[in-house]
Design brief:
66 residues
Length: 66
């Protein structure tokens, strides 16, 4: 996956997390648990994408002692 595609996916996930946070605050209490579960999964996916993007930016350690 290219850096650009990862960055776009990360941006989309960040927007979705922010939207879910706002929706949870105004949602009825009986819907909040399901929404919190979706939020937890989206945050995990967002964090995974962020790690992928950070990993893509790091130059390979050629010639460096291990």
């Amino acid at each position: 996956m290219s850096i650009r595609m990862i960055a776009r996916e990360l941006y989309r996930l960040q927007q979705e997390v922010e939207k879910l946070l706002a929706e949870i605050e105004s949602a009825p209490s009986h819907e909040r648990e399901a929404m919190k579960d979706r939020l937890r999964r989206r945050k995990a996916e967002r964090d995974r994408m962020r790690k992928m993007l950070d990993g893509e930016k790091v130059p390979p350690p050629f010639g460096q002692p291990s």
